[in-house]
Amino acid sequence: MKAYVYSANGAEITEIAKPSPKGTQVLVKVHACGLNRADLGMTKGHVHGAAGGVGTVLGMEWAGEVAELGPDAKGVKVGDKIMGSGGAAFAEYTLADHGRLFRAPSNMNFEEAATLPVALATMHNAVVTSGALQKGQTVLIQGASSGVGLMAMQIAKFKGAKLVIGSSTDATRRGRLKEFGADLAIDSSDPGWVDEVLKATNGEGVDLIVDQVSGKVANQNLAATKVKGRIVNVGRLGGTHADFNFDLHAARRINYIGVTFRTRTIEEVREIFDEVRKDIWGAVESRKLQLPIDKVYPFAEIGRAFEHMEANKHLGKIVVTL
User: For 2-145, where are the E strands, in sequence order?
Assistant: First the structure.
């Protein structure tokens, strides 16, 4: 079968053996894949968690149909339309754990379904489970114009947030954040953004920051969070290391939480998918929670899809179809 593999010559489409499901695995015939920022790094040989390097089949998000079941797989049957996340997604067939997938709604095509699994799982966990957002609270999403950022704002609004603030350093994308739930859009590269947040929250700061940037905005985040507020760190687009004001952190008594899928067990991931199903799946089926598709490429042009992502001018998801 065809797959997009990182090799000694870089990322390229090549022929590999079709996998077979074992245990709780499901073999998926892939119809569409969503691109994620971590995939871009892996096309350059970077490691993401335990995955990456020469020989790695790239990709982590897909939509397709069940082709075969492992002996212990439950909850789906051959022919079911599904979507999910996991390694080796950019291929004609991929393997998925039976607890790391969703049934794709009937009112959604494969391209649309492929945009959702990573964003739903990541941001429901960040906003609702780890971030403990309550109805009537205020939230800031740093890096809000990314696919997961757009979903975070929508989930926050759906869960009853009183004020949703989104940040983007790109003026065009910042201008569109209100379409996806933002009550206020800020530029986190502007030194005065903390004052904007404080003004919007009567000087208190927000209850919750979901931070995909970190690095250079770390201390500003502390100043923009209310006393006894929460910061959930889900990314490092602003760098992995930075100065950190420990005194301000202590003075504001902020609960600073780090989350990632890279170190989670399959049991923990299954629980996250279960929580999405229980809490917000009705909103997915009714299309209250959805992501825009920026551009669709055929699998043969997946290299162009990554060039488009690297240009960093898109809003929403880039999708590849097989």
Answer: 2-7, 10-15, 25-34, 61-69, 81-85, 93-97, 101-103, 138-142
